[in-house]
Amino acid sequence: MTSAFTGSIRDKLIAAKQQWAQKGRLLTGAHDESHENRLPPGQREVKDWPVLDLGITPHVSQAEWQLSIKGEVENPVALSMNQLLELPAFYDCSDMHCVTSWSRYENHWQGVSARELARLVRPTDAARHVLFTAHDGYTTNVTIEQFLDDDVLLAHHWQDQPISDEHGGPVRVVIPKLYLWKSAKWVREITFSKTDKPGFWEVRGYHNNADPWTEQRYD
Ligand SMILES: Nc1nc2c(c(=O)[nH]1)N[C@H]1C(S)=C(S)[C@@H](COP(=O)(O)O)O[C@H]1N2
Ligand SMILES: [Mo]
User: Fold this and answer.
1) Which atom number of ligand 1 is nearest to the Cα of residue 100?
2) Which of 102, 154, 181, 203 to probe ligand 1 with, by most ligand atoms within 8 A of CB?
3) What's the CATH code of the domain at 59?
4) Residue span of the signal peptide, if any (predicted)?
């Protein structure tokens, strides 16, 4: 929450919020304010935000934070926090669904979109999967199509506040359409790959695809 951090993103935040407001307006009508048909099967809504992880909370400062994006890409990069913040800002509001059956509506995320990162690193035609590695040793995997969905981002703010350490700050992945275990907290490496590589929970019986709407919980 240092002023340098917030100062460097303020203008882009306003622009991104305007974009988001436009998207919200376009979705009016399709957006179900009554929350009917908003809760995937077997889920219940919570108002708080539970913490779920392996029990290790890495404390990664903004100064230390670095993200390596590599593998099947034409332009591998290692981004510092300042370099991440120089990329166009992305703002999106989405629901989250945890496989342990809680869902939390209306999460306002701010960060950099997956599509923006792909524009930067340029995945090769051979890239089919995206693998995440985090500071606590956690790993998870998605298809490149799932990663490049229009609501996926690397988030550094939630509800206008920097993401706390326990929720994966300073930067976590957010993939709203999949169960939350696919959204790596404390992300440090993103690898584009020809082949799939099931992550921490995927090798322990969780479903590889993780779609909440068809209850792809366990394999
Ligand atoms: N690095 C890391 N990311 C992680 C996990 C983890 O243990 N380590 N747990 C996953 C699981 S199982 C869930 S449900 C969500 C929980 O995110 P939250 O604690 O912010 O609610 O983080 C996901 N991302
Ligand atoms: Mo989870």
Assistant:
1) 14
2) 181
3) 3.90.420.10
4) none
